[in-house]
Amino acid sequence: MRQSALTPLMKAFGTSLLNSGRDLAPIIGVVVLFQLVIIDQPFPDLVSTLFGLLLVLFGLAMFVVGLDLGLFPLGESMAESFAVKGSLTWLLLFAFAIGFGTTIAEPALIAVTQEGAKAAAEAGLIPSTTESLESYALGVRLTVALSVGAAILLGVLRILKGWSLPKIIISGYALVMLMTIIAPKEIIGLAYDSGGVTTSTVTVPLVTALGVGLARSIRGRDPLVDGFGLIALASLTPMIFVMGYGILAT
Amino acid sequence: MMFLDDPAAFFLATARDVFPVLLFLVFFHLAVLKRPIPRPSHVAIGFLFVLIGMALFLAGLELALFPVGRSMALQLVEAAQQSGVTSWKSYGLIYLFAALIGFSTTIAEPSLIAVAIKAQQASHGSISPWGLRTVVAIGVALGITLGTYRIITGTPLHWYIMAGYIIVAIQTLFAPKSLIPLAYDSGGVTTSTVTVPLVAALGLGLASNIPGRSTVIDGFGLIAFASLFPIITVLAYAQLAQWKTNRYKAKLLNQ
User: What is the pLDDT of residue B149?
Assistant: First the structure.
């Protein structure tokens, strides 16, 4: 009994290890090539780097297996249920919550906001105590999560009403440009980057499930055309919100 | 290193990050959908895996990917400055490194492979998965390379992004309608969990090692470039594919 439950888990873990290996391999390849052929020097801190790479490899593999096992089936079945349930309020609330929740748990975002906090401390914008670093990083992360929640809500409304995606995106671009003029220049770089960071391991599969499920349940919508576009919105709104955070914080 | 000093505190901090998500999923399921949780033991084990995996991953980033990005930036800047001339042209190796990292990580990205297969279906075969992957990878390579050029010259980020937006807006007018959402999304999916930290560290490392650059103002932006440029190359590719199909059709009609 126990054996039979463990075997598929080991298999899933193996596949996941292969995938994270494939993610890492090009990076290792390029870095090794440069280190050996061009810079022609032994790599600094080789042992701790190798140990760290192993942690990344196994950590990412476990993370993905865990998502597949526990959180994705739950999230996907909920996304489908809400899409067909018909209550607009709950659907929109769920859309917001799934954007917010998945972004809070996005590992790349945690890492980048920490780097952002360090850079802000180096530049003397915030005091370089652990406490202020953490509160700055958390502030940016919550802002980004709010913005992704808002993006998914807007994206779901777009699918329901059949609004044109290009119009929303282009007006979003215009808003980004306006905000750039008034935002403090120290936040602009981090704000622009946070758009690309938000959409990786956790957010993409769940959000895609919601979009495609929704487009499938509405008559006359093509899941391939209407299901896409949520990610694009989720990469746009963080720029606007983080710059807004920068304006309010100063 | 927080992970090695106090692993328990590290796991606790990670738990605080992930717990709200689980709580929200369970709440919605029980209170709103009014359904029992399907296979609660799987959910519990999955959650435990997510927790441990994320803690290990974040610790690994601190130990490996961030230092690698920073030390590559430092070594490449030193190599460039040894020649004595410090115009933007002497940083050739950095552009090469940026382009290679961008291209190779994107072409192997699993979520892009999935999107490429969907794109083939959506375009009725006029867009091949390999073609799309190559085009997106070229976009990311171009983006990151131009991004490093921007850090080296210290020119304002928003001019580049604004120019990129204008190009996207013009392309949108002419591109085949059904592929526009896909092209917009391809910008977001390219930047994977492993690539983002490395590229972020590279940018911050370059900005802190090149004299006269500020880490906060100049160090960020590489990820923004990597998300914007694939949109441009994919829209261009979609247009080219449409033009080819039309020309082929016209040829058939003339015969």
Answer: 93
Contact B196, A193 (CB under 8 A): no
Q: Which residue range is the domain that position B59 belongs to?
A: 1-84
DSSP B86: -
Average pLDDT on B202-215 reads: 87
Closest CA to B56 of A196, A55, A118, A81: A55
Contact between residue A220 and residue A165 where contact means Cβ atoms under 8 Å apart: no
> Global pTM?
0.83
Q: What is the pLDDT of residues A137-182, one digit of tens each?
A: 889 999 999 999 999 999 888 888 888 888 898 899 899 999 999 9
Q: Does residue A91 contact residue B43 with C-beta atoms inside 8 Å?
A: no
Residue A182 host element (H or E): helix A165-182
Q: Give the B window 102-131 contacts with A, CB below 8 Å.
A: 104-105, 107-111, 118, 121-122
Q: Could you tell me if residue A79 is inside a domain?
A: no
| Number of domains forming the structure of chain B | 2
Q: Judged by CB atoms within 8 Å, which residues 121-180 of A form the interface with B?
A: 122-123, 125, 165-166, 169-170, 173, 176-177, 180
Domain that holds residue A193: 86-249
Is A15 within 8 Å of chain B by CB?
no
Nearest CB to B121; choose among A102, A125, A224:
A224
- Residue contact B72–A34, C-beta within 8 A: yes
Per the CB < 8 A criterion, the answer to whether B233 and B106 are in contact is no
Residues of A in contact with B109 (CB under 8 A): 23
Whether pLDDT at A1 is above 50: no
What is the C-alpha end-to-end distance of chain B, expressed in Å? 72
